[in-house]
């Protein structure tokens, strides 16, 4: 059996190594020269790809829960979806969640994922009390902000390059409903979008869909959704039934015309400037999870997600230039997500900084990487960075210009011989 990334790009031959107990995992580490841990295969690019992949999903036991503090102890292979299934009916939710619940806890830590509330709660690592990590020699250490701090800062966002996370203790948050009171605001252009984000920044959750095909004075128009958990004490949470995409779509289905039509209709579906409604957890946080195998929509050649972030002072000007470049290229995305971020943390390779990020999905086709190279230049021009968890092609020079702690991370890997054991296609490409 071999594994591909969620973007189905790049495609390589690999061997999946499975383990059930810690002794098996230690033997695997001793027997193979280069390997990389993998969770549920939802990384878009090549961060969890290598010739030898360690599948950690089998380590999926819940170990303990403190109802007074919300501290949950569980193995690294547990999916966020499994946490929600058990704990939402009891009135608990994840403090930080990305746009999919189909990732493992270990993957959430390794990518230091963020969500619609970064400006309030920060990254996933900021809900982590501690975790246990198996190193290149098979030894196990406990990492926290106060114990083996260097390992904690390197592992959170370290893309699996510091060892294999065995289990973790994370804090959940108390909720009183499975519903979100959502406000949708329809904006006219990018200035209106930024002004509206700031107007509603007191809300815990905010995210915007951007019409990346709009041009001229309509550039940056969006549908901004903000929300808070309701207080109706309705907690009978059940996962949404899924629509299945059983086969890869022909590549011609997604083209400049169909993307433009989709964006036009999606923006027009909201009639009023402000709309209020109550939506459930899955609709608000995980809309794409309702479509099983949605990655097949992009065809057999796959797709890549391009996600970047710009410092707040540069966000408006840089975002306008990038959106203009994309619109003129004709290679738009119907999944274009804009988010507001709070302050950066101290983790060496964590993506967020105070500012705005944009994530776009592009199918792999001729001319795409030339466009992305142009976008890289703009990102660097405005002192931004690219998100490793979504990346499949960024160059070493582009990457290292965006991450001020990269030298410290490289020295850390070398110091503990981690660079001789934990290696991915991404780490080889970017020199980390």
Write the layout of secondary structure elements.
Elements: E1 15-18, H1 22-31, E2 36-38, E3 52-55, E4 62-66, E5 71-75, H2 80-87, E6 92-94, H3 105-110, H4 118-121, E7 128-134, E8 140-143, H5 149-155, E9 164-174, E10 179-186, H6 190-199, E11 205-210, E12 222-229, E13 243-244, H7 256-268, E14 274-280, H8 281-285, E15 291-292, E16 303-311, H9 312-329, E17 336-341, E18 355-363, H10 368-381, E19 385-386, H11 396-402, H12 406-415, H13 425-430
Parallel strand pairs: 1-3, 2-3, 13-15
Antiparallel strand pairs: 4-5, 5-9, 6-9, 7-8, 7-9, 10-12, 10-14, 11-12, 11-17, 16-18, 16-19, 17-18
Helix pairs in contact: 9-10
What's the N-to-C terminus distance?
Answer: 27 Å
Structural class: alpha+beta
Strand element count = 19
What is the CATH class of the largest domain? Alpha Beta
Instruction: Please give the domain count.
Output: 2
Percent in helix: 25-40%
Q: For the largest sheet, list the strands in their spatial order.
A: 14-10-12-11-17-18-16-19
CATH T-level topology of the largest domain: Alpha-Beta Plaits
Overall 3D shape: globular
**Mean pLDDT, all residues:** 95
Going by CATH, the architecture of the largest domain would be 2-Layer Sandwich
The proportion of residues in beta strands is: 15-25%
